[in-house]
Every structure is written in C-alpha cells, then in structure tokens.
Amino acid sequence: MTTTNTLLAVNDLHAHYGKSHILHGVTFDVGQNEVVSLLGRNGSGRSTTLKAIMGIVPPTQGSILLNDRQLAKAKSYEICRSGIAYVPEEREVFANLTVDENLRMGEQAAKKGATQWTVEDMFAYFPRLKERRNVKAGSISGGEQQMLTMCRSLLGNPLVILIDEPTEGLAPKIVSAVGECIMDLQRKNVSVVLVEQKLTIALKVSSRVCVVGHGQIVFEGTPQHLMEDEKLLADWLAV
Ligand SMILES: Nc1ncnc2c1ncn2[C@@H]1O[C@H](COP(=O)(O)OP(=O)(O)O)[C@@H](O)[C@H]1O
Ligand SMILES: [Mg+2]
Predict the structure, then answer these.
(1) Helix, strand, or coil here: 90?
(2) Domains of the chain, start order
C-alpha cells in the first residue's frame, strides 16, 4: 500500500446520548483509496462514531475534516452533500418502489474527483439485483435490501462511504460479493470506513484497522499487525 493523502480526519471526537458519554475522543483518519475498518465488541461505540461523523448524533467535542473542510458542526444533509455517504445497519429501502426505482432515487451527478457510478455498475456487482429490478423493494429478501441500500448510496458518487455491518445476516455467497464490491470501491477512488463484525472479511478488505474500545481507538495499524497482537485480540475483540 503506497502512502495516501488524508481525505477524512477525525480528531478527538466526543458524543453523548443524553447524559451518557459514549465517545471519549475518537481519533483516526482515512486516506484516499483506503478502506479503514472499525472493529470492536458490541457496544464499543463503532456505530456511534459513524453517526457522529454524519451529524446524526451531534458531536459534543472534536473535529471532522473532509479535505480540510470542517464538518463537526454541519447538518447531516450538508455532510452528505460534501461527499460522505452513510449506509446504516438498518436496511432503508422505499418498500413501494421497485429495485430499479430505488436505485434511480440515489443517482446524483458526481462532484469533482469522485467516480461517476451507474445503475448498470451496480447490477454488475450484484446480478441478483438486476434479476429483481422490477420487483417492489419491500418484497425482496433482507440481504437484497442490504445490497440495495449500499448501491443507492454509491449512486450519490461519494468521496467516502461509511458502511455499518453490511454483511450482517447475509448468505455466504453474498458476503463475498459485498467484500468484492468494497475492494473495488477502493480501486475506483472511493474511500471506505467499514464497521464489520466478521473479522475475516474486515482483514481481507482493509488497508488499516482501528479497534474501538469504550469509545476510544485502542489500536490502529495494519490487519497483519492486529493479527500478531494476541493480547489485543483477546482484550478487545474476544477472539
Ligand atoms: N440511541 C441510544 N441511546 C442511548 N444509548 C445508546 C444509543 N445507541 C447506542 N447507545 C449506547 O452507546 C454505546 C455504543 O453503542 P454503539 O455505537 O451502537 O456500539 P457498536 O456499534 O460498537 O456496537 C452502547 O453502550 C450503547 O448501549
Ligand atoms: Mg453497531
């Protein structure tokens, strides 16, 4: 992996749910063409980190820079328009629209420097969606809805995409298709922040991994360094 330019820099990010202090100074960055995974136990603060970056849970302290533009106080729609896409854990499809119509809803003209994706590109990744293109999104399987949500976000041509547990509940064959898609994003100039419970997938697709523990980054390094650190794995990932 060659050295990359920083695209997204998160520094000392704090977040609260009411009085509960959840993020205690999360710091990490994502370079151009990088896939960075956030790993950790359930409840460690991975999803909250993604939500805080998107302004869905407003950060109470800290800085979020996308290409040197400060987003820590920006509204979610501004963050989205500045080039960050978010695929939440919950599948979000328009149930009464067809698969194809759902995809068309996501289409936007690419900003400078971003890849222009087409609906046909999405069908090439996920032929199953092509087969189901005229079916109402409410009637396709959960796994297919997951793919659809991810594809719709990509059609907004983001610079960086935050993806929360995309392979949760998917059949093994689709899990590997999602893995392929994520690696291809990197090749096509889209950076990725991935929250992934399946360690094998995360290690395969990531250029770097961050381990989240109690709302902080407790390790940052290559997948190889992580696998060599047995104490870290035992303490923070329970493997
Ligand atoms: N909407 C919420 N209200 C209050 N507490 C929450 C909410 N969402 C998450 N939490 C708490 O915040 C902590 C971090 O959660 P989360 O970021 O979802 O963890 P992860 O994605 O790593 O499993 C957990 O202790 C969880 O119970
Ligand atoms: Mg989560």
Answers:
(1) coil
(2) 6-237 (3.40.50.300)
